Amino acid sequence: MFYSFHFYCIYHLINMKSSLTLLCLVVWVNVDASSAQTGFSSAPLSVCSGPLPNVPDARVTEESIKNEYKEDNIVLFSCNFGFVPAGRISYQCKKNKWVVVRQGKCKPKPCELPDETANGHYSIHVGNDFVFGATIKYTCNDGYQMVSKTDIRTCMVAGWSNHLPLCEVVSCVPEATDGRVVVSGLPDGVIQYRHELKFSCPNPAHQLKGNPQVVCAAGGMWNNRFPTCEDVTCEAAEKINNVNMIGIPQNNSTMKYGHRLQFECSNSKHVLKGESEVVCSTNGQWSHSFPICEEPKDFCGPPPHLMNGDTNSSRERYRSGESVHYVCQNYYILDPPSAYKTCRDGIWIGLITCLKPCTVDEELMNTQNIQFKYPPQYQNKLYATHGDHITFKCTGHLRLSPGSVDFRQQCINGFMNLPHCQ
């Protein structure tokens, strides 16, 4: 093996006829490296044997990968998937160490601003900015609901994933009713968010079980279940001393609306204090308190109050045998027509009732698609006293529904069946 050695010039200064001549002698000699007579040895080259530099979110380029990196070798880096360079990144092997040549960085690839969705908004769900890997979540505004399968979008290399989520107005579907309940407030079209429906039982023999109103809430759900109309029932009080109750069912079951109970004293020398008859009325209450039996007295106090009626005169004290006459309010009918209560042994005797009128207005008729056949002038509401008849007809070109009652109906103590058209 041979090495080449360079020998520098040998300078001689020669004075010849007052002029300077520079003589340079260059000598190249090949020397056998194995000859011990040379007296020279080779120095080892510097190598970076440690691990390559660790650059966040970057990797060594393929062309820079080697088995061994020697002095002055340069390593280039490229950004990982989803990241973009902010300046070049390179390192150089110097004295067994890696030295920064260009100290660039790899930053997450940004996405454009996300699209807004109508009737909704978005917020960052994962991450802090609109860059690769960030996730946003769309939420619908109050009164709207998500109709898309997913409400999430992620910033990818090619842009935002998934389609833009859509929000549509919340709507509710009315539940089926039992046929007894009347629903007010049903629109012609879609039932939208926060729309309210009201319920009533037109038949006094029925009472509403549940909330009297419901509201279309978030998610297209009603805030409460639809109520039902159930039979009004009354319960008999516990047995009263010295009082016989007539009309209690044999199985002691509950009594329905309109059921009557009569009372009499078990001791013939006693007098009944209170009403001799009570009726199961609206809301499951008896028309009067149950009476008691007492020993006879010579005087009565003021005459008892009559619901929807009053006496034509009143005193603090009445002798046994005296009577007072009652009258009813407007549109109420006195039953019996000549109604008196009489003081008997300290007790007012006589069952009197003011029969209720029926009220039919435009809102109630709209639920049945009917109108007055003979409408009253200058008003859209009609009061019918007990026993009166009202004749209706269908609105527009509608016809009487199968199974509906006839157009001509009678008022019975505040209740009137209404025909239905379709």
Rough outline: elongated
- CATH evolutionary superfamily of the domain at 233-350: Complement Module, domain 1
Main sheet strand line-up: 3-4-5-6
Mean pLDDT across residues:
85
> Total helix count?
1
Secondary-structure-derived class: mainly beta
In whole angstroms, how far apart are the ends?
116 Å
How large is the share of residues in beta strands?
35-45%
The name CATH uses for the topology of the domain at 233-350 is Complement Module, domain 1
The CATH architecture of the domain at 233-350 comes to Ribbon
Give the radius of gyration: 53 Å
What is the number of strand segments? 39
Sheet of most strands: 4 strands, antiparallel
Q: Could you list the spans in which at least 5 consecutive residues all have pLDDT below 50?
A: 1-41
Subcellular location: Virion
Pfam families: Sushi
Protein name: Sushi domain-containing protein
Keywords: Disulfide bond, Signal, Sushi
